[in-house]
Here is the input.
Amino acid sequence: MSEQRFARTLIQPPWSGRALLDVLAERFAYQSREKWFRLIRQGAILVNGRPSQPTQVVASGDRVEYVLERLEEPPVRTDYRVLFDDGVVLAIDKPGDLPCHPAGRFFQNTLWALLRRDLGLAEVHFVNRLDRETSGIVLLARDPAAARRLGQPSRRQQMVKDYLVVVEGDLREAVHARGWLTDDAGSALRTKRRFVPGDPEAASAPDGAEPCDTAFTPLRHHAGMTLVQARLGTGRMHQIRATLLGLGFPVVGDKVYGRDETCYLRFIGKTLTDADRQLLRLERQALHAWRLAFPHPVSDALIALESPLPPDLADLVPEAP
Here is the structure.
């Protein structure tokens, strides 16, 4: 028999007077509105210890509990470190193989849950998020007001985001890749995207496409691989990985945008072969959020942070002696 466990939160003043379903769907977007509706109807959401209704209006101080079954979560790395914390803004250096927020099989084994446990945070306001396998800087705000200010379009435009990525092949010249990201209709993977080169300002976008802009600068080479700096001009899902694949330089270790996308199907089916592992070279995608600069949400002072290249990526392309 599974053991019950609870995820608990208190309703804060900004959410007071809202319907329970609206609060859950907006605050905890790792599950769809339809899924929250079903959970409420199934009695899995308690308000002040009692079963609730989707339209129930919650008030400041109400205790909302999510009744969960004890599920075995995959192991993750938990050796994150705090890069910056001034009581308003929090920056974390996240290891690879740690999800930022609950999704799929991950709930307690996430950065979201670790910060709540280790730092005693009642709320976790992500300003940017990284894929589970991507390491580096994750920016958070300690309160909703700071999160809103950091998320303003004008402040987003002032952010500077630099990544380090190890790619297959010898990239010798800097490339400023501009174009669009669109669904990859030729892929067996539903969420995979495709980079279409072009000038977003001079031509109309393909149907459903998003304009994207990334500057790539090669830094050093080793054994048929290149360490590349990637600076984001736009922030799109899978932007760096999809663009590099489109340029002919797939990311080392990438099971989706690497040299063979069927590796991902075998990975989720737990049937990766030794040949797959040799092709991938690395257990995770070789992508690292290296540097981040942003205006502070209160003082407007420029905050510049850096996370050194982790050993597993540095070993792929060592510096010349």
Observations:
- The chain is about 20% helix and 30% strand.
- The chain has three domains: 4-69, 71-151, 162-288.
